[in-house]
Write a structure and sequence with these properties.
Length: 196
């Protein structure tokens, strides 16, 4: 079974993957387009997404070996691309063995890395939006729309509304990305404050 779903938030992607795995599947592969290939299994699997960057080849091999020693299988990720790694393993009855980051310090480090990952993507996208988006453009382009009367006004407004939403989509997406980044930052700070 092949499933594709686009995510900006790696934590939401992880939850989605695990919801599919709970239905009796395991991940066979993840394609370069982001599509997941699942196969049926009679065992329970769990997946985790980790974000790591700035690896030397030696450090990367050590990183993979540590998780393999604990039974994790690398499904997707490499040291050169975006730093996101998808791991899976058979689900254990011990919940600590189902986590990549089992202590508070490593969880804080994980959320910090995810936050900086999202911050970099959001910053690049915001720069892109500010370069191409012209605030001088009107949102509604129908001439005389606001002077129209009763039913003609409502027909024209409802006709143009989908086009307005399409024109505003990049800005709406930017707002969503900022929200996701701030949510991850709050999770990171909450864990950091609980550690003290």
């Amino acid at each position: 079974m092949i499933k594709y779903k686009a995510f900006l938030d790696p934590l939401k992607e992880e939850r989605w993957i695990n919801s599919v795995l709970e239905q009796g599947y395991k991940i066979k592969n993840k394609t370069w387009t982001g599509a997941y290939i699942f196969e049926e299994t009679d065992k329970e699997y769990i997946a985790r997404i980790d974000y790591q960057d700035k690896f030397t080849l030696k450090d990367y091999e050590e990183y993979k070996m540590i998780y393999k020693d604990f039974g994790w299988q690398l499904v997707s990720g490499n040291k050169n691309f975006n730093g996101l790694h998808v791991w899976q393993k058979e689900k254990s009855s011990d919940e600590n063995l189902n986590e990549l980051n089992s202590d508070i310090a490593s969880s804080i480090s994980y959320f910090k890395r995810i936050f900086y990952y999202l911050l970099s993507i959001t910053s690049i996208y915001a720069l892109f939006i500010f370069i191409i988006y012209n605030p001088e453009n009107k949102v509604f382009l129908t001439p005389g729309l606001w002077e129209m009367q009763s039913s003609l006004f409502w027909k024209a407004l409802l006709f143009e509304l989908p086009f307005v939403l399409l024109r505003m989509l990049p800005v709406i997406l930017l707002i969503f990305m900022i929200y996701t980044t701030l949510t991850t930052y709050n999770k990171y700070k909450k864990l950091e404050n609980n550690k003290r």
